[in-house]
Amino acid sequence: MKTTIKNSEPLQLEPIGHIFSDFADPFGIPRQPGLASAARATLVLCSPYNDPLSVRGLEDFSHIWLTFIFHLSPKRWTPLVRPPRLGGNTKMGVFATRSTHRPNRLGLSLVTLEHIDTRHGVCLSLSGADLANGTPVVDIKPYLPWLEARPDARGGFAPEPPLLCHVVFSNQARQQLAARADCENFSTLIQQVLAQDPRPAYRRSPDTRIHGIRLRDVDVRFRATRENVLEVIELRPA
Amino acid sequence: MKTTIKNSEPLQLEPIGHIFSDFADPFGIPRQPGLASAARATLVLCSPYNDPLSVRGLEDFSHIWLTFIFHLSPKRWTPLVRPPRLGGNTKMGVFATRSTHRPNRLGLSLVTLEHIDTRHGVCLSLSGADLANGTPVVDIKPYLPWLEARPDARGGFAPEPPLLCHVVFSNQARQQLAARADCENFSTLIQQVLAQDPRPAYRRSPDTRIHGIRLRDVDVRFRATRENVLEVIELRPA
C-alpha cells in the first residue's frame, strides 16, 4: 500500500500554555524528568485553551505527558549527538537519544500532576518536571499505565538510571540555606540536580573550576572536589 | 519567577517521515497502540532526516515513541470530547483524553521497533502501531523503561484496558482468509481490530447494519450479531 507522499507539508503549532519553573536557564536542568522530584513547576494554559472544561477528568490521573518545545535549543541539528551518559565521547543517532538538539525541537516529559487550579483560567502544579522557565507546551495527555508501563522494554545504551554524584554543602552554603523559607525543599532540589553532575560531559573528573547553575532566585556555586563528589560552595543572589 | 510570556509564538514543524500501514482510513484504527500487535507499519524517513547516522544505536531499544500529526482529524477542536470507552455519553476534557480531535492534532504512540533497514535511506519496521497510512511523523524518541514504566500510576477514567468483543468469522470470510498468503497474521489483525468494536460508541449494542473497515487491500464487512459479539461476514476487495 505504498503511496507517494510529499515531503514539504508545513505544520503550524501553537502553544497551549507555558511553564514557570525553578530552572532559569538550560544549564543544570535535569537531563530526564522524574530525577529531580523536588523540582516544582506550574503550567499555565493560555487562551483559548485555558477553559476549565478542557481539563475535566485530568485530576484523576497521577501522571501526565507534556509535549513541549525546546525553545532554548538551536534550530539546527546534526544526525549524530554525544549523550552525556556515554561520557561525551561516543556519538549516537539523534533519534536514539532524548537530546534537546533535535529536528522540530520537540520534547516529551512524564511529570507528576499535583494539583489543578481552575479559579482563574487553568494552572497545573507539577513535580519532577525537567522544564526551563518559559517553555512553550503544545499538548497534554494522560499517562495510561496499562499501555505505557513496559518495565521489560530494552533500553539500549541507557538501560538504567545514570550514576549519581555525592553532594556536600560548605558551612557557608548550609547557613544560607537555613535562612530560607524553602530550606528543606530547596536543599533537596539542589542535591537532586547536582547529583546528576550538570557539568559538561568532558569535565567529569575533579577540577578546580567553580561552576554555577541558576535555581529559583540564586546562582548555586559548586565545584568538583573529588571523584563523584560535588561541593556546594555558596548561594549567590542571581 | 513569573514572567510575561507572549501567546502567539508560531512554531513550524516539518515531517521527518511518513507511515505506511494497514489502516487506509481512520475508521477501525485501534484506539490505542499496542492493542493490535499484529498491525504492521513502516516508518520511512524523508530527506534530510533519512541519514542512517540519525538512527545509530536505536536498534538496541525494543520500544520507541512516535510523535505524529493526526492529519485526518479536523483542525477545529472543542474543550470537551466523548471518550468511546465511556459509551459516548460522558464528556471529558480534551486534555484528559487521547482523542484525535485536539489542539495541535499531535499524537503520541508507543510502538515496538522490529527492524531498521538503512540500505536505502531509513525504514523502520514497527508493530502494534495504531497509525493511519500516510501519517506524518515529527519525532522519534527511545523508550526509557526505568523512567517511563510507572505501573502504579493512577489511570483516571481509563485505569485498565478496554473490554474486548468476541470476534467470529462466517464460512465465507474463513474461506477468503484461507486463500491469502498473509492468512494467519491478517486473521489475527482482524480479530484484534474488531475486538475493540470500532463502531461509533452509540452503537455498542447489537444492530442489523453491516459495517465495513478498510484493512490492507480489503473492506472487512462485519455486523454485531449479539451483545459483545462481532461477526466478520466477508472480505470485499477495496
Note down, in words, how this protein is organized.
Chain A is mainly beta and 238 residues long. Chain A folds into two domains: 17-147, Elongation Factor Tu (Ef-tu), domain 3; 166-237, YaeB-like fold. Chain A has three helices and 13 strands; from the N terminus they run βββββββββαβααβββ. Chain A has helices at 145-148, 171-178, 183-195, and strands at 11-13, 17-21, 40-45, 63-69, 80-81, 92-93, 106-117, 123-127, 136-142, 166-169, 211-215, 218-226, 229-237. In chain A, the strands form three sheets. In chain A, strands 2-3-8-7-4-9 form a six-stranded antiparallel beta barrel. A four-stranded mixed sheet of chain A has the order 10-13-12-11. The radius of gyration of chain A is 19 Å and the shape is globular. Chains A and B meet through strand 1, strand 2, strand 4, strand 6 and strand 7 of A and strand 1, strand 2, strand 4, strand 6 and strand 7 of B. Strand 1 of chain A pairs antiparallel with strand 1 (11-13) of chain B, so a sheet runs across the interface.
Given this structure, which CATH class of the largest domain in chain A is correct? Mainly Beta
Query: Any idea what the CATH superfamily of the largest domain in chain A is called?
Result: YaeB-like
Instruction: Using the 3D structure, state the CATH architecture of the largest domain in chain A.
Output: Beta Barrel
- End-to-end separation of chain A: 58 Å
Share of residues in helices of chain A: 10-25%
Q: What composes the largest sheet of chain A?
A: 6 strands, antiparallel, barrel
The chain pair with the largest interface is: A-B, 86 and 86 residues
Write down the overall mean pLDDT of chain A: 90
Helix-and-strand structural type of chain A = mainly beta
How many individual helices of chain A? 3
**How would you name the oligomeric state of the polypeptide chains in this document?**
homodimer
Strand content of chain A: 25-35%
Number of strands of chain A: 13
Radius of gyration of chain A (CA) equals: 19 Å
